[in-house]
Amino acid sequence: MFTKILIANRGEIARRINRTAQAMGIQTVAVYSTADAQALHVQECNEAVCLGEPEAALSYLNIEKVIAAARRTGAQAIHPGYGFLSENAAFAQACADAHIAFIGPGVQAIRTMGSKSEAKACVQPAGVPLIPGYFGADQSLATLQAEAQRIGFPLMIKAVAGGGGKGIRIVNNEGELPAALESCQREARNAFGDATVMLEKQIINPRHVEVQVFADTHGNVVHLFERDCSAQRRHQKVIEEAPAFGLTEAQRKAFGDTAVQVARAVNYVGAGTVEFLLDARGEFYFMEMNTRLQVEHPVTEMITGFDLVQWQIEIAAGLPLPATQETIHIDGHAFEARLYAENPDQGFLPAIGTVELWEAPEAIEFHTGTHAGRTAGVRLDSSMRSGLAVSPYYDPMVGKLITWAPTRAAALQKLADALARLRCVGVKNNIAWLRSLCLHPEFAAGGYDTGLIDRMTLAATPATTPTGIDPQTLTALAGLARWALHQQTIARSHKTGTDPLAVLDGFYSSAPPLREDRWLQRDQSMVSHSHVSIQGQQALVQCSEHSLNCQLTVVSQPYPLPRLTGLLTTGPHAGDCFDLIWHGDNLSLHVGTEQTSLQWLNPAHIRADQGHDGQGVAAPMPGKVFAVFVKVGDTVKKGQPLIGLEAMKMEHTLNSPCDGVVESIPHPVGDQVTEGTELIHFSKD
């Protein structure tokens, strides 16, 4: 067995690998970029080596630097996690050349399965069912157009080296093909260094079912059953579950047997995932094989009780699989929700900034699902702590919340409840949106397809559904939060050290004036008129037409964030706990299991330029301009594409917010811009 391994990754997966390795008595080496100097994986591993600048190409993707770090620290093996170098055949070869064990499959398997076209050619002789498509080497526009006509529309363009939802475009007709090809090839070249694409017939609204396989160096291959990953947006998984809902035992066996066939066809070793599409008739088709550990591996751990990272390490060390197919069983049901720093109200654009408060009550970190540890049924795999920053350089996922219970309904309820208790303040995030997805009737019923989230978006996304907090309670709590913020500001400025509840005490008047505050809830304006009276731990909030009584628990001290918690004793939410947390002018409100956020329109922060006549388009996040679709003097219509911005490994097209005439384009293709930088300016006329 190895005595020291290097973890060639960052974030929650680096922490996850470290937890198992140290439990096995193995020393660990972290690598990091300068942007991750304070990251938790750096603190928790036994040693750490800085690879260089924040850009992944200069640090986490630099093969020479990673190998040098392993040699310098005496690491006998390297675990690549997922993403970065995990499916890079050149990296696996570099490890072999350096006589360092690669905790993953062999070089040839990575090469074959790393190309979606080669993978299909490899498994086709074994009788594995394939989607009709074109996987050839001729990438000329004429050939691709001819093949598209043969396959028929709608179809999908896929980067052969793709993954993570990148390098995929849907084409509905022949006219869309050239532009979609150019965009897909550009994104593939930037993300994977390979612009080669393939074409596939689009299966309308299928289910996405994948099977976890493991193989050792002794010829043994097993599967650990399937996961349903159909809850997707932009081809990226959002919530995964295991086992898949509604499969018959015959279907489950067919999936497992076919996945094992695929692994044997490529002489696979280690952990792999075979991905399929399941259509409405019950027929399934091979899509691809991911030659690494998956983001969603925890749901398999929770239903089988096995530590998959431990399996990976043992197999790389030459040990046989620790279980046979006959001894692997499904126990209960598990869900995983991916927690992202992103803004659901703005098309899920990635968000950056400092997470001022990160709190996950009752969650067990990185518990791999042994029977003794599944009692709580809530696991958190995360890279986050209060005070850490979300960087613009990497994927915006900050963690994964996993739940387990004996039944699907109970596991889903646990997930919804755990999301309601999770606190992430300081950056926009998808936590409330994920909870709304959990409660959606079609999702809760099970058996949903990959079109679910798109249908929800067309109807009314969970993110734009009105909050479940009663409007009168919402305005009263907003007023209470403003009084608390005001009094905490006074306490801080005088540095009294007084108990904040005592500072708030004693606001009485025979005819109290109502304080007016203006707010934004998403794009809707709101006004609160309130007066707060405090006596001990009892609060009375008097509003224009109603009042609210509550029992206060605590006001945060020594003020890491202005925060007020308590119990509502009157009104529609009587008996519910509330949690009011400030971050700048933004207020996060949690009432029972409901949550929302408000922006206080602070009169002191109104910008001087808000009233100017001109309009423009600003960068919603840091990124690089990769395309400009208009020129100075062009007349544009609302919704017309203007600028292409590459950020957090994805391409984003910024559309015109109005009709207008382009007056200036300050930043050409290739410019790196910060959040808020004006990219297009319209004339005032």
Automatic annotation (TrEMBL):
Q: Which CDD domains match?
A: biotinyl_domain (cd06850)
Mind listing the UniProt keywords for this protein, alphabetically? ATP-binding, Biotin, Ligase, Nucleotide-binding, Transit peptide
Ranges in a coiled coil: none
Where does the Biotin carboxylation domain start and stop, copy by copy?
1-458
Every copy of the Lipoyl-binding domain together lies at 607-683
Identify the residues that the record assigns to the ATP-grasp domain, covering every copy.
120-317
Instruction: Name the InterPro entries for this protein.
Output: ATP-grasp, BC-like_N, Biotin_BS, Biotin_carboxylase_complex, Biotin_carboxylation_dom, Biotin_COase_C, Biotin_lipoyl, CPAse_ATP-bd
Q: Which cofactor does it need?
A: biotin
Q: Any keyword Ligase?
A: yes
Report a single Gene Ontology molecular function.
metal ion binding
Domain of life of the native organism: Bacteria
According to UniProt, the name of this protein is Acetyl/propionyl/methylcrotonyl-CoA carboxylase subunit alpha
